[in-house]
Structures are given as C-alpha cells and as structure tokens.
Design brief:
The complex is a heterodimer of chains A (431) and B (476). Chain A is of the alpha+beta class and 431 residues long. Chain A has 2 domains: 212 residues, PmbA/TldD superfamily (PmbA/TldD fold, 2-Layer Sandwich), CATH 3.30.2290; 213 residues, no CATH class. Helix content of chain A is 21%, strand content 41%. In chain A, helix 1 packs across helix 2. Chain A is globular. The N and C termini of chain A lie far apart (62 Å). The mean pLDDT of chain A is 93. With 476 residues, chain B is of the alpha+beta class. Chain B has 2 domains: 212 residues, PmbA/TldD superfamily (PmbA/TldD fold); 232 residues, no CATH class. In chain B, strands 1, 2, 3, 4, 6, 7, 8 and 9 form an 8-stranded mixed sheet that branches. The termini of chain B are far apart. The model of chain B has no long low-confidence stretch (mean pLDDT 94). Classes of the chains: A alpha+beta (431), B alpha+beta (476). The interface between A and B is large, with 95 and 86 residues. Strand 3 of chain A pairs parallel with strand 2 of chain B, so a sheet runs across the interface.
Chain lengths: 431, 476
C-alpha cells in the first residue's frame, strides 16, 4: 500500500506530503468480578496521507493542507480520487506559508521496554495476574477490570526525505474497586506503563483498596466554606496542565495566552501584575513519550519552567514556524520538581485532603479547577474524618503564588513529580 | 435522498461470508461486523483553516465475534481479500486460542449456554437533503470563514471565533448464521465558539447545532453567532457562585446533560451485570417527579445517534426508561442481556471495529410537559437560569451528580436581573434532583455535537435533550 500511495502522489504531481503508517497489535482481557468475560486480539493498520499545497492569494504565499485515510484493498483509481480530492481541498485552506520538517536523520527505533521480551498475550496475562494479586480481601475487592497490551509501529514518510519510524509497546487498563459495607461504594482507577511494571500496579491496587474501604465509612459531606485543600496522585498532574497548556505555540500565536519567555508566569495574576510567590516555585520539564512526531519532528526533553519563569514555547510545525521557534512537537509526559514539604508536614495544619474525585478538571483558558469529592479526609485540628460529597471550586491563577508541593514523588507514564500539593483558601460547596 | 450503500462493503460481502462459514464450522457462534465510515472535520478560526478526515470516526474495518464453549472472544482486523480468507481464519484461531490460557489465581473464564441468533434481514438508509461531498469543500470553508470573520469583528474583546462543521457517513454490515443486516447513515453537526479576553482571563460562548442529515444543518448555525459572542463577553464579568441550594430553571442543553450524565449512565445494564449501578434496585420504584418520562433509543428521535441496528446486530429500540417518575427498565448490549436473561435493547455500540461493544446511550431525552418557559421563570423567587452545559461525569453506583455549567443567570422575584455567575458545579443525589422537578416546558430541544465516553474512553456519538425543567439544585 505504501508504494501505491507514493505512486499515486507522483501521478498526481503532489509535491509536498507526509504519510503516516500506523499498525496496531493488541491483546485485551475484560474481567467482571472473578470471571474473564471477554478476550480480544487485534491486527490493524491505517494509512493517513496529509497533502500540502503552496499557492498565492492576494500577493501572499499561502500553504494549505488536508489529510485523508487510504485503506487496504483500495484500487489505484480509488487512491487517486481520494488524494486528488484532498489536494483540491488543500487549495481552500488559506494559512500563511511555512516549511515542512526537513530530514535530519533517518532511522527506525524500537523503544526500550521489557515488554518486548514477551508476547503481547503474555504481557496481558502477567499484568492481569499483578492486578488481581492484591485482591485477597472479602470486604473490599476488584469489581471489574480491563487489561490491554499494545504494540504500535509507526512509519513517517515525507516529501522532504523523511523515512523514519519507531516501535513501542505499553500496557494500559482500568479497574474498579468495590466495598459493600457499611455502605456500597466504588473507586475507578486507570493505569498505563511502558514497562511490565507489576509492582507499581500492585501498589496502585493496594492503595485503591485501602481508600475504598475508607470511603465506605464516609457519610458526611464537608460544610460549605473555604479550606486548605490537599490533592494527590494523578490530580496533581492535572493542575500543571495550566502551564503546559498556556505555553503552546498555538495559544501564543492566537493571543489566547500572554505567557512570555523570561516572564515569571507563576507570579503573574489575573490583572497581569506581578505578585510575590510565597509557596513553592514551579520547575517543569516536558518529556516526549514518542521519539518522532507525526510531522516528522525528532522529539527531545524541553525545560518549560524554572522557578516559575517560562523558558520556552513548544508546539507543532505550523505555529512554531509562525513564531520563529524550533518545532518541538507535543509531549506525553511532564516532570515537575518536588517541593520542600513532606505530606506529613502538609497535614500538620487543618486540611481537606481529597484523595478521590468523581472527575477533576482544570480549564487552562480560565484557570478554573474543580470536581466533585468522592473521598476526602477532613482534619479540623483535632480529628480526621472521612467525608464524601460536595465539590471544590478553585482558580490556579488565584492560588499559584501560595501552593506547596510534597517532597514525596509519584511516577507514571505521563507524570513524574510531587505526590501531593496544597492550596490555601479554596472554596468548597458542601452541606 | 437516501444515503447510498458502501460499494466497498458490497464487494467484501462474499469474502466475509466465506470467512463466516469457516468460523461457524469451528465455533458454535460467529458473527462479523464490518464498517466503512468516512468523517470529515472543517474548522476556521483566526489561527487558520483545517480540513481533515476524522481519525476516530473514519475507518474500514472488521470485527469477528465468536463463542467458544460459551466463552466470548473477538478479533479485529483491517484487511481481507479472496485469497487471504484462510490466512485470516488461521490468525484468528491462533491468537484467540493462545490468549487467556493463564488466568490470575481465583479467576475463571465465564461461559454462556445457548447463544441466540434470531433470523433477520435488513437494508435501510437514513435521508439527507444535501451531501457535504456534493456541496464541495470550497463552499463549506467559504461559509465557515464568513461566520468566523463576522464573529471576530463583533467586539474588540472577541479574540477569536472558531466555526466548525463535521459529518459522518457510514455503512455498517452485520453477518451471522441467521442475520444479514446493512445500514447506511449520515449525520452532521457544527458549532461556534466565540472567545473573549480580559487580562489573563478567557471565556467562551458556545453554540452547537446537529441533525441526522447533511450540510443543511449549517442553515441554522449563522443565526447563533450573536448569541455566542454576547455570552463570551458577558462571562468576563461573571461573579463566582455562592455555594448553596437554589431553585433553578435548566435550559434544554442542561436538561440534556442531567438526562445523560446524571441518570442515563446509571441505567446502562452492563453496570447491572457488574453490580455497579444503584438503579437496578429501583426498577418499579419512583426515582423522579411524576412529571418525568424518559426515553433512550436509536429510533427515539431523528438525531446523530439514530441507526437501524446496533454494532452487535440487535435492531434499534425506543426504550421508555422512566414513565411518570417510575423507573421501568434500563438499556443493554447483547452480552449483558445474556448475563441478565433479558432481551437486548439495541444499545451495544463500539467506538470502532477495534473496540469491544458496551452498553451505550443513543438519543436520550425527557418528554415535554405543559408549562411555558416565561411562567417557569416567573415562579422563581430567588434562583438561577442555568445555561451552557460544559461537561459532566457519571456516578451510577452512588447516583452522585457532577455537572459543570458555564452560566447561572440570576432570577429575583420572577425576573432575570442580568447578573451572571460562573463557573458552576452542580452536585447532589440524582433522585433528589429528579424528584424536585416541579415544572416542565411544553417543547423539547435535543442536540449532539459531542461524544460520550465509557469512563475515559470508548467515544461514541450521542444526542440528548429535553424541555426546560424547574428543580431544586445544589450549586457550587
């Protein structure tokens, strides 16, 4: 099919293009209670062709593009028809001209992972075994689970000479823990690892079993008011998406974000004034989870913030070219420097520690974050009470000068950073 | 005009039947689900123009389902030719035989007795007025550009106006020993997002449109532009909500989110199988005000989730879930129906052929009532009109509500004061909210520009909606 696509592009005199060939192999297991309810296997391939067209409009050089999928079994005529329609469509896309990624080095990389030492079926079975290894109690247990083992092979071919690719494997999935007494509650968790990381998964299951047991005891919602709020686990990563979101070249080019390289963005308030940062300062690095972007950019780590000061913008080809910065591609993992406080130090003053939300969200346009509380621990200065219900409603723009990060860190496929963080005076809608 | 059947699937059908025969000789049950789908997104904003095929919704693929000694297994693949039938068959049996041989300690493989396969033949198509492909990419982009430019010129605070259109045209085929089903469907949708900025704060006004059909959906999009721009600017001066419980009037999109997120997910019966939904204990009991009747179904209303059979070959239904406040039944996929010993409701849906089918909602609505919207607002001493639902999360186990709404418009002594609050989190216990519904408007509106996930994945197109409702709701 690759040769057929290249031949069609040549026949149609399409001079600029990027072809992205992605194949997936997977093994999947679905569990309901203590039964394997369904198993699945997959062997698929997709061919995506992005065609570019440079033209003049009102004396300005423009470049349009349009992408289509080409499928196995398509005839020569069908491929020609599909690509010519995309090429025509590209002439209606009036974006200022920019250069495609040049070829610097062609290579195929197999990303290091011990998952390549096993078949996908074995990876799926071993992960399932780790998942259920901690499930030994009667009062709290795994209700249901899904486990996936994936292999993805990507090949990027461009008109600028790029012909590179990579192979990667990962395991992912989700599980639900249930506790029936004194009240029937559940906790949902998902996971993704690039290695056969059975110990991390076991630890995740163990913590989820513990929290679910606590949640079953929680009956009261916190009283409405302002709290010193601690969040932990994957919710910490969500908060830092404010900085990575606003540093994207696309946001900068559009004027959605006023972040400037060299600016202390953590100290800048809603009115654009600089305030004193009393809490921990944010230092973060963006880490690629794929070596090659779909635009043919070889990806490297990028320092984004140093003590709250923005060090760089990042993004895909078009907006990076418009801003005159080096295209970096997008990043699947964030590393954040830990803070100076231990979790125990954070818990010395009264707090509301939310360990489980039904869904936690941060809007990087408004800076607003919030979510409904599934389980939190409320410390009033005397005793700790598990609580459930109500919601937190905060703003990173208001809170960023006075937030603290834990010394303890957490690691997952998409985040390495503080295990917990703490905000002052966050509004809680409770009873 | 009717959507035409895929030539590709017609061509593949005899080849797939050969594979099916081989599978039926090996397994007690086998089916093949095939999909030929094309979806294109168009978007114009200040930052540029985009035309691209949607990677999630476009595919040509196949999914085999077998029961081997009652045990369910599936295999997804993307290519088959006359001369590769044997190779595909060998690969299916090899991969499925290998997987699951070793199970975690204490875990067994579940097996079903007597897989049903009702005899059914069908070939149906939905209708449209204008095919986007015939309209032409240039005309679509011209129209979107005109709306976007008009939006950007509306006010100096408007920093961008993104205008988008997308459609999906698909043919799906389901073959088993007794079934030969084909359907051809097209839906379209569009939206305007006006973005306003003041200092570091950015707010947006969002107006969507959607329908079962073609590009005719864009005829109504432009009329929503001014409203989108005004909303974005208004939100810049919104105040934070004072947490509390208030009398609220919900606009139809907020009603739709309550129907879908707060209640709909709770009656997905794969959750009953897992003992994860409180709703199963409430069948036959009152869960809502007597004013409430709720439906879900691929043939409930003509919208983006309308189809003739689901992705497991079960014919579409219109399921009455709540009737006058009483919970009647849930919705389910074929395998959950087998677990529970009930009939399937045609709600088994896959994101694509590489994914498992789950119980999924389709078009989910509350029926209309008899009240006039102005009378509903006039009846509120102090409360809010809730508008522009942005996101929600289900909690079938505990029936907890978590909905995010962008705007709460203050109502004092039966009148809108012009003061607005944002953002708003709706929380509470679902039956409490539904039982507190005291007035329902006399017409419904439904839409489906978004997607519904199962947890955080498995995206499918759904619509939801209903009338304006008056209820007592906790806001934060």
């Amino acid at each position: 099919m690759k040769e057929q696509i290249l031949a069609s592009l040549k026949r149609l005199h399409i001079e600029e293009y990027i072809i992205n060939i992605t194949s997936y192999q997977s093994a999947q297991m679905f569990f309901v209670k203590k039964s394997l309810d369904c198993k699945r296997a997959e062997n698929t391939i997709t061919y995506n062709v992005n065609v570019y067209r440079t033209f003049d409009k009102d004396g300005k050089e423009m470049k349009g593009n349009s992408s289509v999928y080409v499928y196995n079994g398509m005839t020569e005529e069908e491929i020609d028809a599909s690509l010519s329609r995309a090429y025509l469509a590209a002439s209606f896309v009036c974006n200022p001209a920019y250069d495609l990624m040049e070829c610097t080095e062609n290579k195929f990389i197999t990303m290091e992972s011990d998952l390549f030492n096993h078949t996908l079926e074995e990876c799926c079975e071993k992960t399932s075994e780790a998942l259920f290894a901690e499930d030994r109690k009667e009062d709290v247990f795994i209700n249901s689970a899904e486990v996936f083992a994936y292999e993805r092979n990507v090949e990027i071919i461009s008109s600028t000479g790029i012909d590179s690719g990579y192979a990667q494997r990962w395991i992912s999935g989700e599980f639900v823990v249930q506790c029936k007494e004194p009240q029937d509650v559940e906790t949902y968790k998902d996971f993704r690892y690039n290695e056969l990381d059975c110990e991390s998964l076991k630890s995740k299951v163990r913590k989820t079993l513990e929290y679910t047991l606590e949640r079953a005891k929680a009956t009261e919602a916190p009283k409405a008011g302002k709290y010193r709020v601690i969040i932990s686990d994957s919710y910490v990563n969500d908060v830092f998406s404010y900085y990575s979101g606003r540093a994207q070249a696309g946001y900068i080019y559009a004027g959605y974000s006023t972040f400037e390289v060299g600016q202390n963005v953590q100290a800048t308030n809603a009115e654009g004034e600089v305030a004193e940062v009393k809490g921990d300062k944010v230092s973060m690095t963006l880490v690629p989870t794929e070596p090659l972007s779909d635009e043919g950019i070889w990806q490297r780590e990028l320092e984004l913030l140093d003590n709250g000061v923005l060090k760089a913008y990042y993004g895909g080809l078009r907006f990076s070219r418009y801003l005159g910065i080096e295209p970096t591609g997008f990043f699947g993992c964030v590393n954040v420097a830990p803070g100076t406080m231990s979790v125990e130090d954070m818990k010395k003053e009264p707090y509301l520690w939310v360990v489980n939300f039904s869904d936690f969200q941060l809007d990087d346009f408004t800076g607003h974050f919030g979510g409904e509380i599934r389980l939190a621990f409320l410390y009033d200065g005397e005793k700790v009470t598990p609580v459930t219900g109500g919601s937190i409603n905060g703003s990173i723009i208001d809170s960023q000068t006075n937030m603290h990060f834990s010394k303890e860190i957490q690691k997952s496929a998409d985040f390495v950073g503080p295990y917990a963080m703490c905000f002052e005076d966050v509004s809680v809608a409770g009873v | 005009m009717k959507v035409r059947e895929s030539e590709y699937l017609k061509l593949k059908k005899p080849i797939l039947k050969k594979l099916l025969d081989k599978l039926l000789a090996r397994y007690e049950y086998a089916s093949i689900f095939a999909n030929d789908s094309k979806s294109t997104n168009y978007r114009v904003s200040k930052t540029g123009t985009n035309i691209s095929e949607d990677g999630t919704l476009s595919e040509r693929g196949f999914c085999v389902k077998v029961y081997d000694n009652g045990r369910a297994a599936e295999y997804s693949f993307s290519a088959i030719e006359e001369d590769t039938v044997d190779a595909v068959f060998d690969e299916i049996t090899k991969r499925l035989d290998t997987l699951g041989k070793t199970l975690p300690e204490g875990v067994t493989a579940f097996g079903f007795d007597g897989i049903e396969d009702e005899k059914r033949c069908l070939n149906e198509s939905t209708e449209y007025e204008v095919d986007p492909e015939e309209k032409g990419d240039n005309n679509i982009i011209d129209l979107l550009t005109r709306i976007s430019e008009k939006g950007r010129a509306y006010d100096e605070k408007i920093i961008d106006c993104s205008v988008a259109f997308s459609y999906q045209k698909y043919s799906k085929m389901f073959l088993s020993r007794n079934k030969d089903l084909t359907q051809n469907v097209m839906w379209s949708c569009g939206y305007i997002v006006a973005m306003a900025k003041d200092g570091e704060e950015i707010q947006n006004g969002y107006k969507p449109v959607s329908m079962l059909g073609g590009i005719e959906v864009l005829d109504i999009l432009e009329s929503k532009l001014e409203d989108a721009c005004k909303t974005a600017i208004e939100l810049l001066s919104a105040e934070p909500m004072i947490p509390g419980e208030y009398d609220c009037i919900c606009e139809p999109d907020v009603t739709g989110m309550i129907v879908h997120e707060a209640f709909g997910h709770g009656v997905e019966m794969d959750m009953f199988v897992k003992d994860r939904a409180q709703a199963q204990e409430f069948i036959g009991k009152q869960v809502a005000s007597e004013l409430i009747t709720m439906h879900d179904g691929a043939c409930t209303i003509p919208q983006v989730a309308t189809y003739f059979f689901d992705d497991e070959g079960v014919v579409a239904h219109d399921t009455v879930i709540i009737e006058k406040g009483i919970l009647k039944t849930g919705i389910c996929d074929a395998q959950s129906a087998m677990h529970l010993g009930v009939a399937g409701t045609g709600n088994g849906r896959r994101q694509d052929t590489t994914r498992k089918a789950y119980t999924r909602m389709t078009n989910t609505i509350f029926e209309a009532g008899t009240s006039k919207v102005e009378d509903m607002i006039a009846s509120v001493k102090y409360g809010f009109l809730l508008c522009q639902a942005s996101s929600g999360m289900e909690d079938p186990k505990n029936w907890g509500i978590q909905l995010m709404v962008d705007i709460a418009r203050e109502i004092k002594d039966g009148k809108l004061t012009g003061k607005i609050f944002s953002p708003i989190v709706l929380t509470g216990y679902v039956p409490d909210l539904l039982k507190s519904i005291s007035m329902i408007s006399d017409s419904i509106e439904a839409g489906g520009t978004g997607y519904c996930g199962k947890g955080y994945k498995e995206w499918v197109k759904v619509s939801d909606g209903g009338p304006y409702i008056k209820a007592r709701i906790r806001l934060g």
